[in-house]
Design a protein that fits this description.
single chain; alpha+beta; two-stranded parallel sheet; 5 helices; 8 strands; elongated
Amino acid sequence: MIKLRYVDLENAAGTDLGVSSWRTLDQSTINLFADATSDHQWIHVDEARAREVFGSTIAHGYLTLSMIPILATELFEIEDAKLMLNYGCERVRFTAPAPCGARVRLAQTISKVEASPEATKLTFQSTIELEGSEKPTCVAEVMCLVYPQDAS
């Protein structure tokens, strides 16, 4: 876990935040995501049919993308920030399917820092790695706004 201070963010571009622990993408998680998003495409939820084509169901690409914020909490903390908000994503790619039962983890680097009087925008190069695969399952630039303690 890397601990950062708000005043030091200006110089944080290029900081390699490391990798998170591995998380298993089980069918229960995939089903819950399908229910939450109403995306019940058979490749995600029909275990028998998906087994014939892929060997198992596969996780939603957006499920792997949505794991970035929670896995990032293992990598870094900004000790004196009032709050941090998701700002958006750019250049999102789902580069390999993540089969049910696969283990994934986040590798992340701060690639860009843009300071303003109200907040600092951080851009992260984020990669959801797939255990046993040279190809990641998701690669994205994600951004967040970090507000200092004294911001209202």
